[in-house]
Amino acid sequence: MRERTIPTHDGGKLALYSYGTEDAPGERRVLLIGGAFLTALIYRPFSIALAKGLGDGWAVDVYDRRGRGNSTEQPADYSMATEIADVRTIMTASGARNILGHSLGGSVALNAAQEFAGTSYEPDKLAVYDAAVNIDGSVDTSWLTGFADSVDQGNVGMALARMKRGMEPGTALAKVPEPVLAGLMAIVSHTKINKLFRELMPTGVGELKAAYDEAESARDFSVLPASTRFMVGKKSPQYYKVTATRLHAAVPGSTLEVSPKGNHGSVPAAVRELVSDISDYFKG
After folding, report:
1. Which of 103, 157, 154 is nearest to 132 (CA)?
2. 169 or 134, which is more confident
3. If we measure between CA atoms, which residue out of 278, 254, 260, 258 comes closest to residue 268?
4. Measured between alpha carbons, how far is 50 from 177 in angstroms, rounded to an integer?
5. From CA 41, how far away is CA 31, in angstroms rounded?
6. DSSP H or E run through 128
7. What crossing angle do the helices spanning 272-283 and 44-54 adopt, rounded to 10°?
8. What is the pTM of this model?
9. What is each CA distance from 97 to 31, 71, 82, 121, in whole angstroms?
10. Three-state secondary structure along 238-259?
11. In which band, very low, low, confident or very high, does the pLDDT at 221 lie, cut at 50, 70 and 90?
12. DSSP readout, 42-92?
């Protein structure tokens, strides 16, 4: 693994980690953009597995987005524009010509690719898994205000409960009364992974609002590369499937793939079936 610190346009810094063949050319590099509440370190098993799946002469680059890991905090004027500028910065530093986005990182990837259409930064190949994009109201964002309030108040249990109910509607936990669920979440918030969630909650408020607050039209993404692949886990929350289906219909030449055993966490968990599907797509 190679670790670098990359300066940003606004005086910040981004931590970049590269796996696989260090001097792989841009057309054989995949830039991985991670989701909310997750650091580049969480994606290390997947990055290693994907680099191996891609084979000799390939590399996977993953960076800590603003407000996590060894990267600087979100700036005061943080927005999706900040994320897009950071993608451009990382593409310049790594030379990567291919992009893979997971969850909220999928939203960043799609918005960046839309912005880059027709320029030298337009990716050769683009894939997203469970992209967290609000397409024509495909995502219910009514829980965001309450979640943000709980984070501001330092009420970790309630914040986790509202996020769980909002992002995983229809599950057994989502049906538990909010006060009861908040108590349960307060207890489990002391586990290692939920401690990370707690630390990244303030950052999460900003990025979730940037991705979800304004419903975008699927037509806005019609300029994406014709080879774009929209991937979704069969066991993931339903709104990811709705979003992926609408995006696929709007992007001529794109493909839609449902991972039979996939759930929302299958990417960082480096599920073998998914790693194989993704590496096959980029090798083309």
Report:
1. 103
2. 134
3. 278
4. 40
5. 15
6. strand 125-129
7. 50
8. 0.84
9. 8, 22, 20, 8
10. HHHHHHHHHHHHHCCCCEEEEE
11. very high
12. GGHHHHHHHHHHH-TT-EEEEEPPTTSTTSPPPPTT-SHHHHHHHHHHHHH
Contact 23, 57 (CB under 8 A): no
Question: Helix, strand, or coil here: 177?
Answer: coil
Least Cα distance to 232 among 135, 129, 132, 133 occurs for: 129
All residues at 6 or more sequence positions from 244 whose CB lies less than 8 Å from its CB, including other chains = 130, 131, 230, 231, 232, 256
- Tokens 């990811």 sit at which residue? 240
Going along the chain from its start, the domains and CATH numbers come out as 2-137+215-283 (3.40.50.1820), 144-211 (no CATH)
In this prediction, residue 115 carries a pLDDT of 96
List strands edge to edge, sheet with 29-33. Answer: 2-7, 13-20, 59-63, 29-33, 98-102, 125-129, 229-233, 255-259
> Which ranges constitute the DSSP H helices of the chain?
44-54, 80-94, 104-116, 144-153, 156-167, 178-188, 192-212, 238-250, 272-283
Closest CA to 19 of 37, 35, 40: 40
pLDDT tens digits for range 34-78: 998 889 999 999 999 999 999 999 999 999 999 999 999 999 999
Express each pLDDT in 156-189 by its tens digit.
677 777 776 776 666 655 565 655 445 555 555 5
What radius of gyration, in Å, describes the C-alpha atoms of the chain? 18
3-class DSSP state of 125 = strand
Report the amino acid identity of residue 150.
Answer: S
